[in-house]
Amino acid sequence: MPSQPPAGPVRRLAPSTIAVVAGRPGRVPDAPFSEPVTFASTYNAGGALEYGRYGNPTWSAFEQALGELEGGDARVFASGLAAISAVLSLVPEGGVVVAPDNAYTGTWAQIEERVSAGRATVRGVDVSDSGAVAAAAAGADLVWLESMTNPNLDVADVAAAAAACAGGPLLVVDATFATPVLQRPLELGADLVVHSVTKMIAGHSDVVLGAVVTADPALLSRLDDHRRLHGAIPGPMETFLALRGMRTLAVRMERAQASAQILSGRLAAHPALSRVRYPGFGAMVSIELAGGPSAADALATKVQLWIHATSLGGVESTLERRRRWPSESAQVSGALVRLSVGIEDVEDLWADLVAALDQL
Ligand SMILES: Cc1ncc(COP(=O)(O)O)c(C=O)c1O
Q1: CA–CA separation, 137 and 1 (whole Å)
Q2: Best substitution site from 79, 102, 104, 148 to test ligand 1's pocket, by max atoms within 8 Å of Cβ?
Q3: Which among 53, 119, 244, 302 is annotated as catalytic?
């Protein structure tokens, strides 16, 4: 059911409202507010669904809500990486891909896999340099932006990239960190948006899920075909939980962003740090320890409220030295600790962090 009013003056609902009202069952007596979880491998023949790998009503509710938030049609996948794989399947054999030179490690690994098999060539770019993105886009088949990037938090000018890609390569934005509450790439001219739903959208560190959104029916049909054929389908329970999480996305982001702004400002003055990366919006802050990688590792052992863990975007605040993973880009400082700010009280978060930093 579309969440927009059926008649009267057209007024687009705010993202915080769409997150609450979209993807609900119709308002008829005794209908539940939320689409229930449908566990089904097969349906009675003759309808639109037929088989559990082709469709599921719980997926449809999630897709309706995310699609309305982004301004396109969404497809949910088993993980962010499954969504990324579906999008990369759009690259023709021998195609040219432009990608952030410090993209999320899994994205870069999938592109590298194609390159090493001789199936694609890649041009790495600094996504915050619009001129470099435009130059690399010439003659490419697909331009992949991550905005902001994980974990350096570089921000791309999506509208400028869309202008450079017009009539040429497909423009994809992995907007996992920004979320549709803070940035809607399709409105800025992107062809496809990718999310690791695992992160802020689901928001409770209890599911792994991904999604792709596009306003182009031909691309949507190719993504559908990919999901049916390759089978990276989401579980109905995970999808239900992710939609439940999405209902509070806007308030969680508002709170986490306000805390991230306060923390990044205070951290900038701390002598244990050589650099604070914060683009001014969002819930992620990356800090670089003046004492190098060993100080970064020590910080992770000294915090008590913050959780030392990978991943991000949950209600709980977490931190991690990213280069502890051998696969992390060499462009990421070994002393960088990525903070994912949750929704706890900001003074409690600050007190724990500063107590740990003061011990270094
Ligand atoms: C920016 C970004 N994109 C994609 C992914 C992959 O998503 P998933 O872990 O849900 O497969 C991640 C995971 O950390 C990520 O940070």
Answers
A1: 38
A2: 104
A3: 53
- Coil, helix or strand for 310? coil
Catalytic status, residue 12:
no
102 pocket-lining for ligand 1 (C-beta < 6 Å)? no
Mean pLDDT by 10 residues, the chain (360 residues): 57 94 98 98 97 98 98 98 98 98 94 97 98 98 97 98 98 98 98 98 98 98 98 98 98 98 98 98 98 98 98 97 94 97 98 97
- Give the pTM: 0.96
Q: Is ligand 1 within 6 A of the CB of residue 63?
A: no
Mapped onto helix, strand or coil, the DSSP state of residue 257 is helix
The conformation of residue 46, written as its DSSP 8-state character, comes to T
In the chain, which ranges are E strands? 73-77, 95-100, 120-125, 142-146, 170-174, 192-196, 210-214, 273-277, 284-289, 307-308, 318-321, 336-340
DSSP states along 101-150: TT--HHHHHHHHHHHHTTSEEEEEE-TT-HHHHHHHHTT-SEEEEESS-T
114 in catalytic set:
no
Tokens of 12: 């687009």
Q: Is the CB of 146 under 6 A from ligand 1?
A: yes
